């Protein structure tokens, strides 16, 4: 009873864009969290067709000149923190922790700061958006480490991100558990058999971090060795021309779908594939791989970042050196041309999918535990 006498006040800060009212999958997450703590959320405004007193949304664009978005957060954070008086502030990355550090200097009592580490922060300036961002990549690296070291603690997602926290701070993360992922659309229908035609699926943004260049080179090798193979790419981004060139060169064998309206539609795309290709330079805990597992599809991916945390060679997929298009092609051909192997790896993927299926309640319990631990830090 003493624990519930006063629920902790938690302020969540991140660049996520929210529509109001919240879509059902996000409403379940935030409702579960709100049942365990008083909360406020600072994020970016999407389509606002309703009001939700828990959310403080800003129209500051995410893609602005270097640091402009986070500088704009400082007065917003300071004002909301004075009103709400949080016990703990949780930021979505080290970069949102920087304006929190600036704003909380004037707060008394000073709230605890917990930084979530979802992946390799060094990728942000180097592998996403305009190439101009690489000019300040080293400065961004130092700023992220600065924020992590001055935070009260960090939350990791899996072994890879735990290692990142240790390397940056010399401390263990407060907690480690996966990000909330809505898998309802992937669990509604029974798992389907593999398609008769060998098919590669790609699901993800078309940015340098996902390494579409390696995929394109690998596909050309696969297409020559397996004339019946096809590829379906669901994604949009600045490197869309890389995939469009494959469409032109392999008519009827490569399809690009920029956007799908619902997770169930993505599940159907995965159902029509033999495997998921994931040649990223790095991932935190790859959501696309988890989604593929729920549909009984193996993953052929890079042995990089957090991908080896969930893709186990010869059990639920295959791993290749990052950036090695020839090895990627060999692995794709091996699975696509051997249905028995593809089915065996798919069974392993389906068996492992349950490890990553967290209900909103289980996720909210983990966040409450994180908050309690942060409040009890010396």
User: What topology, given as strand order, has the largest sheet?
Assistant: 3-2-1-4-5-6-7
Q: Residue share in helices? A: 40-55%
Q: Which oligomerization state do the chains in this entry correspond to? A: single chain
* Amount of beta strand: 15-25%
Mind telling me the CATH superfamily name of the largest domain? Glycogen Phosphorylase B
**How many distinct domains?**
2
Distance between the amino and carboxyl termini: 24 Å
CATH first level of the largest domain: Alpha Beta
Mean pLDDT: 93
Give the low-pLDDT segments: none
Shape: globular
Level-2 CATH architecture of the largest domain:
3-Layer(aba) Sandwich
What is the fold named in CATH at topology level of the largest domain? Rossmann fold
- Helix-strand sequence: HEHEEHEHEHHEHEHEHEHEHEHEHEHHH
Please give the largest β-sheet.
7 strands, parallel
Summarize the topology.
Elements (H helix, E strand, L loop, with lengths): L1 H4 L3 E12 L3 H11 L3 E11 L6 E4 L9 H17 L3 E4 L2 H10 L8 E5 L6 H5 L9 H14 L2 E4 L2 H11 L5 E2 L7 H4 L11 E5 L8 H14 L4 E5 L5 H10 L4 E4 L5 H9 L3 E4 L8 H8 L4 E4 L4 H4 L6 E4 L4 H12 L2 H15 L6 H16 L3
Parallel strand pairs: 1-2, 1-4, 2-3, 4-5, 5-6, 6-7, 8-9, 8-11, 9-10, 11-12, 12-13
Helix pairs in contact: 2-16, 3-4, 4-6, 9-14, 12-15
Tell me about this structure.
The protein is α/β, with parallel strands linked by helices and 378 residues long. It has 16 helices and 13 strands. The protein has helices at residues 2-5, 24-34, 68-84, 94-103, 123-127, 137-150, 159-169, 184-187, 212-225, 240-249, 263-271, 287-294, 307-310, 325-336, 339-353, 360-375; strands at 9-20, 38-48, 55-58, 88-91, 112-116, 153-156, 175-176, 199-203, 230-234, 254-257, 275-278, 299-302, 317-320. The two termini are 24 Å apart.
